[in-house]
Amino acid sequence: PALVNISVVVKGHGGGRAFRVPAAGSGVIVSVAGHVVTNYHVVRNAERIDVQLESGELREAAVVGSDRSTDIAVLKIATGHLHAAIRADGRDAVQQGDLVFAFGSPFDFRFSMSSGVVSGKGRSVGVIRNERGQPFGYENFIQVDAAINPGNSGGPLLDFRGHVIGMNTAIATGRRTTGSFEDGQFAGIG
Question: Residues 71, 105, 112, 145: which is the catalytic one?
Fold first, then answer.
């Protein structure tokens, strides 16, 4: 019940004119006060953000904090009937081979989950980039083989106890365009 779907309308620019582009991602409720954590890239340039709860209820959200260098954003939604996620105890280290579950809205199939194992830790893959496309920010990823696809971004990664250990952020598809990974589909590395 702490998983949410995030729908975003952003203003795009093409051919010298502005237009609205719908986009989607996922997030997780981290407090009953209405705080939702997601990826910064999910809500970047948003004109409007709507959060859908597991019950189907839609609530408008506002960005109350963001850090582009770590690709994290905090949203605020109205309180009431919210369930906050349980974070893993920081003393319990995530280990290679641990069973994990990735939750989100892949290809807009809302409130989905996939499973896998921790394949590696401490990964830096250069997905956080500045305006010029150069690597920027801090990366210390948990690598998993759970299926993660477009729309999973911002959703929680859980351990076998159901505790949040991370956030779905990026996938590697093996395809590159001009030095950066192209949007793609699950290829075994998230």
Answer: 71
